[in-house]
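Design review, sub-item: ligand-bound model
Attendees: FS, YL, KQ
YL presented the inputs for the nicotinamide-adenine-dinucleotide complex:
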Amino acid sequence: MDRIRIGLVGCGGMGTRHLYGMRELRRTGLANADIVAVCDPRRENAELAASEAEKLFDRRPEAFASVEEMAERCRGLDAVDVVTEPHLHHALACAALERGLHVMVEKPMGLTVKACRVMIEAAARHGRKLSVNENYRRDPVNRLIRQVIDKGLIGRPYQMVHHSVGGGDRIVITPWRHLKARGGITLDVGVHFADIILYYLGDAASVFGSAEVVREVRHRPATPNRPYELHRRRLAEMEETVRPTAEDVSVATIRMAGGAAVDWRLDMAAKRLGYFRRAVYGTQGAIDCPGERNGHPATLHLEDREKPLTGREILEVLPDFELDPVTSALFGRRAMDYPFPPDEADIKLLGLEYHEFAEAILNDRPPEVDGVAGLKAVALVYAILESSVAGTSLRLEDVESGKVDAYQREIDEAIGL
Ligand SMILES: NC(=O)c1ccc[n+]([C@@H]2O[C@H](COP(=O)([O-])OP(=O)(O)OC[C@H]3O[C@@H](n4cnc5c(N)ncnc54)[C@H](O)[C@@H]3O)[C@@H](O)[C@H]2O)c1
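KQ shared the predicted structure:
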């Protein structure tokens, strides 16, 4: 077998973009997977995705109403790609794993830590791969920053700042992102940042956090967030307002196992003075990351150099740095800044995810972001929310093990766990 056959589970906004991710991978000539089927209980979404795929791949994937039907009727299926609302991830992933299929799942891996654990256990029981789509870390800028830190160029990292402020009172993409039992914006956005923090600095040890719902009503956005037909339809049928049950503002101090302190601020409610800042400070320098999917270069400040190094200049002090061949094929060799707009960069990262998942299956090796890594990112966000409820600092190991779950208990009950 030199290519794997994947079925897409969930043909909403992100499911549509995954098709384009596969198209990006095919354009490199390095594709090792095909999307051969799609499923969605909303028949019109499944058919729209099948038509979109037909335009992109000159071959129409079969459309099904459920993952069970797809697994039963689609011949030679090897794996599924779960891209539904997060409260369904664990049940759909387990249904696929039980039928002998490998699973790639969008972030957040599961809606709660318990949901993630159920998925890890099912993958182990059935001997199948479980890979979590954490796309941000795959951006060339984050590959570079991780190397800068690992090679000790900034000395011992003692502090990281992770602030993302802005969001106002609009519904962020979909109403479910404001409902605790279905998603929750602190988890949905925060898990990206949690994964980056863990990717840069290793495991977290403890968290002291606080969170609240600031916007009690959110309003329908004026325009779709992406240029696809599915996104237009999704907005057209969206309710005018939603009453959030999920926190939209969180602040925290995270103490990493390696000693660094991380200052976390995720404010999805601010209408004014929005900003983004991600920086790591070490005993010999500091590095500033402008975020991902925007092609903006990182800036490295070294104490023994007068001027900071930006983008490709950083390669002067990291001469051996190379991106893997697929990232190079998508973004350009040693691409430290790139000219693609965010939408294009985003689908290239999705192409990378497909490639790495297929390689893990074809070569029987662990995926980069396996179930444990996916769980740790989810647990880091919940540690903030659990700490807010407990009013005290919490150890990550207690959140990861499920010993502390007061915040998540009602969500687990709602999703049948
Ligand atoms: N990595 C990223 O940058 C990124 C960006 C956006 C979304 N996401 C993630 O992608 C996932 C989906 O988000 P979205 O914005 O596409 O949501 P969405 O609401 O637009 O789409 C969800 C789709 O799943 C379908 N669905 C519901 N139940 C199903 C079932 N039982 N089987 C199959 N399909 C089912 C729905 O009908 C819908 O078409 C979420 O986990 C989200 O966090 C990730």
